[in-house]
């Protein structure tokens, strides 16, 4: 980027709160029609085990958003020492409940609970987190329409479409991180949209040069400000999934930062998500969208 083009360059900050509000407003409208047509609201049941403070905040925010979307929302609270059979029995009960369209078991779970077994016990048609092997398998096979998609990757794709449209043909996308919750599914969604996709991770040699080739760069590794200016192609769309808390021992305060060094990267990016206020709000918005999708599918 030359000095002249740099002076003309204006980075688009992708406001996750505003985009998420557009999504939930649309969900609320369709939800109202659903209730009129079927005589009931879409139903979302959240299971919270234990007293983890962050989980309690997430669950409270999800309940508040479900109410705004016109859903019948319930939170089932279980003690931290609950036995696995009791939790599995609750999941079975929710699977059988015709008024429940979506089931979400808030993670993390206590150490005595096998999280994989619990997530696999959820009816895949009610799996609004999109973590069940049936939904993951459909996505891996290239089907992006049938399954309930994991919420964070679905939110990322919604933001990318705002910038590039639905067809990403001719664009190079690099995903830093290979988790089953974000890295792998977002790579599959990008591939389904015709991007040329590379997944980079801790074993990738010269990861900075790999990242610099990306027209679309998704950082999802949980490493504070890992991605610096020299990792980013000028004009690239940069999606920062990281949420990291950095302590300032001198001031006794802490700040939330992403996996991207925002101050360094924003001046050269074409579009970038902030932290906080970027991808985070989209995750809950897409959860609402999944709940409505599940409700509509079950009434067909």
Low-confidence region ranges: 1-7
Q: For this entry, what is the oligomeric state of its chains?
A: single chain
Based on helices, strands and strand pairing, what is the structural class?
alpha/beta
Report the helical percentage.
40-55%
Q: Report the sheet with the most strands, covering strand number, pairing sense and barrel closure.
A: 6 strands, parallel
- Average per-residue pLDDT, rounded, comes to 95
Number of helices: 11
Distance linking N and C termini: 53 Å
What's the total count of β strands? Answer: 11
**Envelope shape:** globular
List strands and helices in order, with pairings.
Blueprint (H helix, E strand, L loop, with lengths): L2 H6 L3 E2 L2 H23 L4 E7 L3 H16 L3 E7 L5 H13 L5 E4 L9 H7 L11 H8 L10 H14 L7 E5 L6 H10 L3 E5 L6 H6 L3 E4 L17 E4 L3 E5 L4 E5 L4 H4 L5 E2 L6 H20 L2
Task: Please give a structural write-up.
By secondary structure, the protein is α/β, with parallel strands linked by helices. It contains eleven helices and eleven strands. It has helices spanning 3-8, 16-38, 53-68, 84-96, 115-121, 133-140, 151-164, 183-192, 207-212, 262-265, 279-298, and strands at 12-13, 43-49, 72-78, 102-105, 172-176, 196-200, 216-219, 237-240, 244-248, 253-257, 271-272. The strands form three sheets. A six-stranded parallel β-sheet has the order 1-11-8-7-5-6. A three-stranded parallel β-sheet has the order 3-2-4, sandwiched between helices. Strands 9-10 form a two-stranded antiparallel sheet. It is globular and about 50 Å long. The N and C termini lie far apart (53 Å).
